[in-house]
Amino acid sequence: MYQERVNQVLSKMKTLNQTQLVVSDPMTIYYLTGKMIDPGERLVALIFKANGEHVAVINRLFPVLESEINMPIVAVDDTDEGKGIAILANQLNYEEKIGIDKYWTAEFLLGLMKQVGKGYSHYFFSSDITDEIRGIKSTEEINLMKDVSKDNDTAIGLLADLIPLGLTEVEMAERLGDIYEDLGNSGFSFDPIVAYGANGADPHHMNDESTVKKGDSIILDIGGVKNGYCSDMTRTFFYQEVPDKSREVYETVLEANKRAIAKVKPGVTFAEIDAAARDYITEKGYGEYFTHRTGHFIGMECHEAGDVSAINHKKVQPGMIFSIEPGIYVPGEVGVRIEDLVVATEEGCELLNHYPKELTVLG
């Protein structure tokens, strides 16, 4: 599996006529080798070469075997020049362009540029190569995503059942941790959002000590991790009653969600999917209150490269998994977001979430 992924990287390098990539993103290293290394401030990088003479440059602090990553290792120490950057530079061909991925620190990149002595144009952003490969999920990955999403369906139902207990937003999030543990998830894929009433008008509300009141909307945006893959889903409920304006907002978001999902199929651009949701919300008079993109890619990380937005004119391909999550956020009044994950198929798409999303009143 991992060699097949590396071969895909090499194939893309050949297509782009690039000869060497420095890969430092821990999750991409994990994706390509099956070895997770959290480097912190230390140097860890894989150098992929078109001629197959790959090498890993890894700080001695991390006990990694060559057999674990299927390539030779060059060890560096904290006391090496530039924390090892000079040693890494010696593994590169200075006359060929050098690919750098998205998460390398300025300390290392600037050190390499000084060592190599070449200007900005000698380097290129290489994460597009690895991210595009990660963006197309294999059958095995899709099945893992379905499994963790099934758990998320269960989790959000159990969490919603707790609403009548009058727990604070913080307490709800704590209970969710227990729910995921019981379901065999290893933790959160992101910090869960529990937002009551006007708190929901902040799309990235930080949970506080608020308790739910009659007529409040209740946003539950949650996700877990299982077998290395992430789930993510949002449902909005109401407590005891639904004010007329809140009902209108909810029905608008729900229809926008459905329209965007119906638009998903190979060959359609992500901008067109975004427009399917955004244009409807605008038509209903709430355009100014839809303040974020319609979706994001997801897999081993909750937010992976790629999104559903007005500026993404790339086309959907089978195997891509991303969210559809339109929302309306009226400051001081109400927030509603409805989020599903979809996997693109040859004919259209398949929903990974199956928890009901019709308007529901709790309590």
TrEMBL record:
Q: Which SUPFAM superfamilies match?
A: Creatinase/aminopeptidase, Creatinase/prolidase N-terminal domain
The UniProt GO MF terms for this protein read: aminopeptidase activity; metalloexopeptidase activity
Per its UniProt record, what InterPro entries does this chain match? Creatin/AminoP/Spt16_N (IPR029149), Creatinase/aminopeptidase-like (IPR036005), Creatinase_N (IPR000587), Pept_M24 (IPR000994), Pept_M24_MAP (IPR001714), Peptidase_M24B (IPR050659)
Boundaries of each Creatinase N-terminal domain copy? 5-118
- Which superkingdom is the protein from? Bacteria
Peptidase M24 domain mapped to chain residues: 145-346
Name assigned to this protein:
Peptidase M24 family protein
Q: Organism, per UniProt?
A: Vagococcus fluvialis
The top of its lineage is: Bacteria, Bacillati, Bacillota, Bacilli, Lactobacillales
